[in-house]
Amino acid sequence: MKPVQWIGAAVHLLLGLVFPYVLGGTVVLTYGLMSPSTAKQKLAGALIAIVYVAMITAVNVMVLKYLPRKSKINSAVIHAALFAAGAAVMFAALRR
Question: How many degrees, rounded to 5, is the angle at CA 88 between CA 3 and CA 11?
């Protein structure tokens, strides 16, 4: 793997680790926890989700842009697996 692919893999792992917090924050701010959320809170929740998705998209574009087609598919699968593993580890850690 090229160095940029390693960097992309590490970033996806880190993004997977913070996913439970982003998911929880987005849901709580958008829908409210004990009471309905205000328009300002809904906007904050939407912005959190948009920035998070934009970060994932930016990493994918930067890492996969110059790779040949077969390498793009392989790297995308590796990145998705690392993201899922990071999210699973953090969900399991938060459950304790």
Answer: 20
